[in-house]
């Protein structure tokens, strides 16, 4: 999902960015899509001017253009610039020619046609998806008509919208299933596949390969999936901290330590003792999704568990939300880790090694306690 989305009404300068339209529409040497500062800066990227100033006033950005007429993605690298004395920013660079084999692709574009602009990246955009919609094209026309109302009857040529608005417009316009604007819509299957794939999962990777015909995966998608997994992992560990704190207060464990907070390379996340001097190790595996999603173990975690003299448990966080999660605790996995290491060492050729393992939740080598609910602590807003 994009970080920010805007609807932009195209004017002559915007259309002059395209080589085949430059002499027809451009009245100056300016070429590029103009982005209004009251949206780009005031609503999306407040620190963009400072960031750009540290880069000689220009920020390189990956741009993929879709359309008009639902044409497929056309990638390029351009720059976000703000000319001295100009109020607005411009997506600039060389004139945009027609892709190979797509002569006259942009010729149907006219003044007051629409671009939907999706920005990805923080604190500055690193990737832009540009969806060009032509009123003259029957495929684009219903979508164009619905979006054009947002910038009609006003001096504003660019307005911010959100993904829910895109979904409503797509539904009302009955946009066909393969229209690229659907890249901006939530797709649970793709999100699940990305979650698995960015962790090295083969199931997710194979799923993405199967569904590429209906949805490309951009570098922004991957970056977002990685950010989301980092967030989910951190929130999952925080909930385990809450759970262990309550167990200690109730006298069910003696003491515990959140190891990964001070040692991010630790092969486990927590350690605790209960009734003896034996240390118990915990590795937290978190997902927003259901219990049955695979979890992933790094080779470092497998080797540590296989060689450990103390019990090693997986705390599986699933169904994570802002209010809490479900927690399932595994049996001691040391025997399973030794089996993984032995299979790896006996099968892998030469000096080839695997970096991680995808583990299905129903593997017979691991047993799970009945899930419990862990509630997130209430936030004190008064402080």
What's the topology here?
Blueprint lengths: L3 E6 L2 H4 L6 H4 L7 E3 L1 H8 L3 H6 L4 E9 L7 E8 L7 E4 L21 E7 L6 E7 L7 H8 L9 E4 L1 H11 L14 H10 L4 H10 L7 H31 L5 E4 H4 L7 E4 L6 E7 L8 E4 H9 L4 E10 L2 E6 L4 H14 L8 E4 L12 E4 L8
Parallel strand pairs: 3-7, 11-13
Antiparallel strand pairs: 1-6, 1-8, 2-5, 3-4, 4-5, 6-7, 9-10, 10-11, 12-15, 13-14, 14-16
Helix pairs in contact: 5-6, 7-8, 11-12
What can you tell me about this protein's structure?
This protein is of the alpha+beta class. It folds into two domains: 4-185, At1g16640 B3 domain (Beta Barrel), CATH 2.40.330; 235-375, Trna Endonuclease, Chain: A, domain 1 (3-Layer(aba) Sandwich). Helix content is 31%, strand content 24%. The protein contains twelve helices and 16 strands. The strands form three sheets. It has an eight-stranded mixed sheet, with helices on both faces. Strands 9-10-11-13-14-16 form a six-stranded mixed sheet. Strand 13 (312-321) and strand 14 form a beta hairpin. Helix 5 packs across helix 6 (163-173) and helix 11 packs across helix 12. The model has no long low-confidence stretch (mean pLDDT 88).
Short description:
The protein is of the alpha+beta class and 383 residues long. The chain has twelve helices and 16 strands.
Task: Provide the low-confidence segments as ranges.
Answer: none
Which sheet architecture does the biggest sheet show?
A: 8 strands, mixed
Query: Could you say what the CATH architecture of the largest domain is?
Result: Beta Barrel
Radius of gyration: 26 Å
CATH topology of the largest domain: At1g16640 B3 domain
The end-to-end distance, rounded to whole angstroms, is 33 Å
Order of helices and strands: EHHEHHEEEEEHEHHHHEHEEEHEEHEE
State the total count of DSSP E strands. 16
Structural class: alpha+beta
Estimate nothing, just give the exact number of structural domains. 2
Using the alpha-carbon principal axes, give the shape.
elongated
Number of helices: 12
Which whole number gives the mean pLDDT? 88
CATH level 1 name of the largest domain? Mainly Beta
């Amino acid at each position: 999902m994009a970080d920010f989305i805007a609807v932009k009404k195209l004017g002559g300068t915007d259309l002059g960015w395209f080589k085949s339209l430059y002499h027809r529409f451009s009245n100056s040497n300016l070429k590029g899509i103009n982005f209004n500062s009251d949206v780009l800066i005031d609503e999306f990227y407040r620190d963009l001017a400072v960031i750009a100033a540290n880069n000689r006033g220009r920020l390189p950005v990956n741009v993929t253009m879709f359309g008009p007429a639902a044409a497929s993605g056309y990638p390029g690298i351009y720059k976000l610039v703000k000319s001295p004395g100009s109020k607005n920013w411009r997506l600039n660079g060389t004139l945009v020619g027609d892709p190979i084999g797509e002569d006259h692709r942009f010729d149907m574009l006219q003044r007051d046609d629409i671009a939907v602009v999706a920005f990805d990246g923080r604190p500055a955009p690193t990737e832009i998806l540009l969806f060009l919609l032509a009123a003259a094209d029957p495929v684009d026309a219903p979508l164009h008509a619905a979006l054009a109302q947002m910038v009609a009857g006003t001096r504003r040529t660019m307005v911010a919208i959100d993904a829910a608005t895109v979904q409503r417009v797509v539904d009302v316009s009955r946009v066909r299933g393969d229209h690229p604007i659907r890249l901006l819509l939530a797709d649970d299957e793709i999100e699940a596949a990305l979650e698995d794939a960015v962790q090295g999962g083969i199931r997710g990777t194979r799923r993405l390969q199967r569904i590429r015909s209906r949805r490309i995966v951009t570098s922004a998608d991957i970056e977002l999936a990685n950010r989301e997994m980092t967030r989910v992992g951190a929130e999952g560990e925080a909930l385990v901290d809450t759970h262990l704190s309550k167990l200690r207060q109730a006298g069910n464990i003696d003491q515990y330590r959140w190891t990964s907070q001070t040692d991010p390379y630790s092969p486990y996340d927590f350690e605790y003792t209960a009734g003896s001097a034996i240390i118990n190790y915990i590795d937290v595996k978190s997902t927003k999704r259901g219990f049955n999603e695979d979890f992933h173990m790094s080779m470092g975690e497998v080797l540590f568990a296989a060689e450990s003299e103390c019990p090693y448990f997986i705390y599986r966080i699933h169904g994570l939300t802002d209010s809490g999660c479900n927690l399932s605790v595994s049996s001691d996995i040391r025997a399973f880790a030794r089996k993984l290491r032995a299979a790896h060492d006996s099968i892998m050729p030469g000096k080839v090694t695997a970096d991680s393992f995808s583990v299905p939740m129903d593997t017979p080598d691991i047993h799970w306690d009945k899930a419990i609910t862990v509630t997130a602590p209430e936030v004190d807003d008064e402080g």
